[in-house]
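Hi all, long-time lurker, first post. I run a small reading group and we've been trying to get comfortable going from sequence to structure in the token notation. Rather than ask abstract questions, I figured I'd post a concrete chain and ask someone more experienced to write out its structure so we can walk through it together at our next meeting. Sequence below, copied exactly:
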Amino acid sequence: MDTIGFEQHDHKNCVKGALSAVEAHCAAHKLQFTAVRRRVLEILLSEHRAMGAYEILDVLRDEGLGSQPPVAYRALDFLVSHRFAHKVERLNAFIACTHPGETHTPAFLICRSCDAVAEAHAEPSKGMLGRVASETGFFIEQAVVEAIGLCPQCRKGALPCP
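-- Answer (accepted) --
Happy to help. Here is the structure in token form:
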């Protein structure tokens, strides 16, 4: 899987492809992809950045789709529980999954300067975390991987490392 978030891409096809994948997954698994759930996903996809629940609620309110926090939180809970979106803990925000319908463990690369987020693929059972878990007899079921640094755009403006 590719890292998505810091490079240029065909945004229209990105949004269209993600929506199609989610619609197909919901149909195949008999999940209700309601108008509000769809709109919340569209908002996340169109912004292509991590957004707080209240930012999303502001858009829903402006469009007449609800003004109470549970409206946004219920839609986000659905999207996150089915892995169509992810919660970025450091930012207390949500981001559309770049690989909806695929089984994967996302790793988030978060720019400490501009808060841009890119999703990459992680293998928590491998590498250092996997070795430590194996040595202690621990079985990893889920991991949240968030790395903080500078995105390519902010690095261009940063001072060189000493």
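A couple of things your group might point at:
The chain has one domain: 11-157.
The two ends are 33 Å apart (CA to CA).
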